[in-house]
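Researcher: I'd like a structural prediction for the single chain below. Treat it as a standalone chain; there are no partners to consider.
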Amino acid sequence: MSSRRILILGRPKSGKLSLVKALTSTLPSGLTHEDTSHAGLTHSIALNTRYYSTEAGIWIDEIPVDTETWLNEYLSAEAVPVFQSLAAVILTLNPSSSEYNEDLELLRRLIERGEDLEWDGIGLVVGKENSSQSVSIANLCDEMAFEYIDISKSGDNEYGGTSPNITAKDVEKLGKARVLEVLHTCDWSSAPDDTDSLGSLQDGEIDFELNAFDEDEENKEKGSEKDVEYMERMMAMLLNARGIIHSESSLKVEIGQEMSLEERKRLARRTVETVAKMS
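Model: Treating it as a single chain, here is the predicted structure.
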């Protein structure tokens, strides 16, 4: 199995699981009911071409209401090993949503961060045409240099046909077949061994995060809640990037509905110790 991953991200009801089902014919485990958050779910996909066959992991994340805090986690220094483990980032969009402009901007900033890190992955936008709005999304993607794929389409694009001047190289697939075609072009060799970045997290950042649990009494509850949520999410990202944790045991934000804050602190500490032993 490749050590590199596909990150599929999008708003609730934007088609994340529909895309996974279209690409793999199955759904991730861990979906206990229809209201289950998709953040942290994992799956895998078999990629087969004439030249290679591999299995790649899929990590699903959900864009929350607080987009700035969510984005800053991906842009942080701690998340560099996560970013470098990705071969592709796919944004799913609901063409009828009023938030697609903001979501495209989030993807732009993620890809911009990747360029700063000399990331060699691919950014892609996938939607499902259900209104004339999808046309403007395609235009916006063109302006931002993103490829937009309408997952509801199939066959070949307008460059195909029966003209004798048309060759196989001139024909571009549509829909699911095009998404797979793009994924086949990704580099599925081992992700960079970014031990320096991980070491920084183990030493300074982990000490900082653990010490943050011991703040003054006045800010204890609020600060601890925020720190634990950040820790849960960052550790889940790192462990998923290393292929160590699966969806059934992923540290997801909704875990707070099942555990007290003190229990979550203890779990976060144990997870930090796990990450610290990975180098």
